Amino acid sequence: MKTVKIAMIGVGAISGIYLENITKTFHEIELVGVCDLIRERAEKAQQEYHVPKLYETMHDAFADSEVDIVLNLTRPYEHFEVTSEALKAGKHVYSEKPLGATLEEGEALAKLAEEKGLMLGGAPDTFLGAGIQTCRELIDKGMIGDPIGAAAFMVCRGHESWHPDPAFYYQFGGGPMMDMGPYYVTALVNLLGGVKGVTGVTKSSFPKRVITSEPHRGEIVDVEVPTYVTGILDFESGATGTIFTTFDVHYKQQARFELYGSEGTLLIPDPNYFGGQIQLLRPEDGEYREIPLMFDYKENSRALGLADMAKALQTGREFRADVQQTLHVLEILTAFEKSSAKRAYLPIIHRYTRRQPMKHNPIHGILDE
Length: 369
What we know:
Elements: E1 4-9, H1 15-24, E2 29-35, H2 39-49, E3 53-54, H3 58-62, E4 69-72, H4 79-88, E5 92-95, H5 103-116, E6 120-122, H6 130-140, E7 147-155, H7 176-179, H8 181-192, E8 195-203, E9 208-210, E10 220-222, E11 228-235, E12 240-246, E13 256-261, E14 264-267, E15 278-281, E16 289-291, H9 304-315, H10 323-342, E17 346-347
Parallel strand pairs: 1-2, 1-4, 2-3, 4-5, 5-6, 7-12
Antiparallel strand pairs: 7-13, 8-11, 8-17, 9-10, 11-12, 13-14, 14-15, 15-16
Helix pairs in contact: 4-5, 5-10, 8-10
């Protein structure tokens, strides 16, 4: 079997699950090299996962003729530079979320990819997992009737109590909407279709945050981004959604993610994960009943979107987590703060068309044609 060759740029906290799944789960992609500004991280990954190459700089990776796709796992404010340089070098790029730190960055990357005739897209890919795909099938088959609305809430006190390097969550490109919002918005547009406009109210409740996790315990972080974000989504279908993300509130679990229809209500699993419990309420039942997952990839399957991109590259079919999705989501994420500043409804410019749902393949780790 011919594999699509991957170069990983950035070997931080999220890289572990990518390394596991690229090397052990998905059989049609192959990790040929790693690169990180902190060389020790790349060396550790190379040794543990038997990666053939360690690149001194990202440009060495981009110059490697063996590499088909660059996997950009750098911090959000670094996404633009890494992705743009990779595209300029003629490489397809799959990026961690978000596509860019601003809409303007995302637009520039989309334009560059189009000019170069290259594939561009990226995370989150949790919407390809068993949870959201099962929900999509239920909705598409009319199990809740006509979708009317949705509510998506991500409530927590921030990452400074547990993350080893939490400062960037409060810096340019960070914040709860840019960090966690992509999971919810990506799931919502895959379930309900594109968004035509948004309204938002945002604020930063605390101007400084104290890190209590190691190794930066006691350091103080200046907050540069909104950390309490509320928004209303006006879907092209006519449905209305509410989204709320915050790093300012003490809360013990995921708040809720619900979708309302004319004939029922669907409780959707946390879109930060690939599986989870689904519950459906229909009037004839009178109470919620659990719906079994009907698709593969219910475990942590990060790199599923990368594998889907590789399959699309090999076969010529469409790529499910492509740039039209990541750009649409980025515009929505950044529009809430702009709407809040203008105290106005903001139309969404970049249109979105849902890609094909996942298809069953009997061999785990090999995707559909």
